[in-house]
Amino acid sequence: MSKVNVVLGSFFGDEGKGKIIDYLSTNADVSIRCSGGNNAGHTIKVNGEKFAFHLIPSGILSPNTKALIGNGVVVDPKVLIEEINSLEQHGYSTKNLFISNKAHVIMPYHIELDKLLEENRGSAKIGTTARGIGPAYCDKYERSGIRMEDFITSNFRELALRNIENKNKIFKSFNYPTLDANKIIEEYEEYAKILAPYVKDTINIIHKSLDNNETILCEGAQATLLDIDFGTYPYVTSSNPTIGGVCTGTGIGAKDIGEVYGVLKAYSSKVGEGPFLTEQDNEIGNTIRELGHEYGTTTKRPRRCGWLDLVALKYACRINGLTGLAINHVDTIGKLDKIQLCVAYNHKGKISMDFSTNPTYISNCTPVYEEFDGNFGDLSNIKTKEDLPENAKKYLERIEEIVQVPIKFIGTGSDRNDMIIC
Ligand code: GDP
Ligand code: IMO
Ligand code: MG
User: Fold this and answer.
1) 353 vs 309: CA distance, rounded Å
2) Of all atoms in ligand 2, which is nearest to the CA of residue 241?
3) Whose CA is nearest to atom 25 of ligand 2?
4) Minimum CA distance residue for ligand 2 atom 5
5) Category of 16 on φ-ψ map: left (φ > 0), alpha (ψ -120 to 50) or beta
6) Where does the pLDDT of residue 299 fall: very low under 50, low under 70, confident under 90, or very high at 90 and above?
7) How far is the CA of 100 from the centre of ligand 1 (A)?
8) What are phi and psi of 42, to 5 degrees?
9) Burial class (CB in 10 A: 0-12, 13-18, 19+), 117
10) Distance of alpha carbon 10 from alpha carbon 222, whole angstroms
11) Would you give the DSSP letter of residue 90?
12) Would the pLDDT of 220 be above 70?
């Protein structure tokens, strides 16, 4: 029986999930995006050419892999069409792309609401991607959302009209510009025509594929500390990017899950507001940002940078049942002279590996660091773990020793080939 392999973000996103997915999907029959929407930005470099995926599973680059947008995803039709067109222009077929009939549609009122809510939060803003993600999930759970299966039928007009009228009442009460229902409906009916051929019962496709023992790969978006339940609430996204979201966002049961790979960087980064204990809001953080080109794929915002936090990583291992780690940007961290690794928290004098997203707990913790030598040198031609420089080995071995999960992939550069498979 083949099992479903899963790739998840371990921290605050942007750990390089795209690159690992790209590698694993070469041998996969099916690759699936499970949750989130175009708040995600997954970069893959193929022979120097850069692809940024926001909605389509990166597995689309493998010609024989079916690429599924699962029922847990929220889909902005306009963005999806742009992504389809861009792939086709680059010579990649989208004939293997399927969108779940149960995925919810992000409408313009979701995007406007996202902006309005952020504006109103003032200094307590979350720093969302302003892509309408939170409001689209709100409507899903409030049961007024529009699913793809309604979007592509005549039901759409009535549902959209009712929703736009209701949202306009909210906009009016905030003196925020209202939306022109007819204009939006006409525009979105055109998008629906383009997307209709891609809309399928993906749950059915997945179940058939499981029956046929095909290889399935689930592509996580966002990450553990951005999870609506397990992350640093309210500075999180509005879905479950952790292992539970894989099951509810696809229709795959727990017994079919095989390897669960947690992707991380050899340091940490974050976009948006919220606690980040090992952040280096100083020259070190700036240096890491420049060395690692840490600017958002989706919003181009400079990412906050800091040291790797093993207390948080251990939590991510537990939450997701990680069976292996994929650690990227080992080349980047290796350019520093000295590296700090957070191996415990000091909470009011008590040193432990206890993790909690409780804001009071976090604000009373300081990281306990171990120092490592950097200067790893050029890693570009290294293809085995054994051949890594001693300083890199010491750093990676200490990570494995503390979190007790084996490192299965080591990223040594941004290109798809810059990877050591352990
Ligand atoms: P994702 O959202 O988790 O898929 O990650 P992003 O694509 O948003 O951000 C990861 C960035 O790091 C991208 O620009 C990648 O090209 C780059 N990257 C991934 N792995 C490595 C690595 O091992 N070394 C270097 N230098 N860059 C990497
Ligand atoms: P990938 O898949 C990094 C962050 C936003 C913000 C918070 C809420 O590329 O790793 P939202 O628009 O989701 O309501 O914003 O979540 N965020 C991400 N940060 N990588 C991502 O995705 C993210 N998706 C959302 O910056 O802090
Ligand atoms: Mg990203």
Assistant:
1) 10
2) 2
3) 39
4) 128
5) left
6) confident
7) 28
8) -115, 115
9) middle
10) 9
11) T
12) yes
User: What mean pLDDT is predicted for residues 164-176?
Assistant: 98
**Residue pointed to by tokens 């059915």:** 204
Q: Which two tokens stand for residue 170?
A: 């909210």
Query: Residue 228 in 3-state DSSP?
Result: coil
**DSSP per-residue codes, 344-362:** EEEETTEEE------HHHH
Ligand closest in space to the Cα of 23: 1
For residues 141-178, one letter each, b for 16 or more C-beta atoms within 10 angstroms of the residue's C-beta and e for the rest, the string is: eeeebbbbbbbbeeebeebbeebbeebbeebeeeebee
What CA–CA distance (Å, rounded) separates 77 from 83? 10
* Residue of 22, 29, 42, 309 with catalytic role: 42
- Between the CA of residue 186 and those of 168, 182, 191, what are the distances in Å? 18, 6, 9
pLDDT in tens, 102-131: 999 999 999 999 999 999 999 999 999 999
The verdict on whether 293 is a catalytic residue reads no
The residue count for the chain = 422
Rounded distance between C-alpha atoms, residue 371 and residue 343, angstroms: 10
Task: Establish whether 42 is a catalytic residue.
Answer: yes
How many beta carbons lie within 10 A of that of residue 184, not counting itself? 17
CA 276 – CA 359 distance, rounded (Å): 11
Contact 226, 40 (CB under 8 A): no
Provide the residues around ligand 3 (an ion) whose CB is within 5 A.
14, 41, 297
The C-alpha atoms of residue 221 and residue 201 are separated, in whole angstroms, by 21
Cα–Cα distance, 198 to 131 (Å, whole number): 22
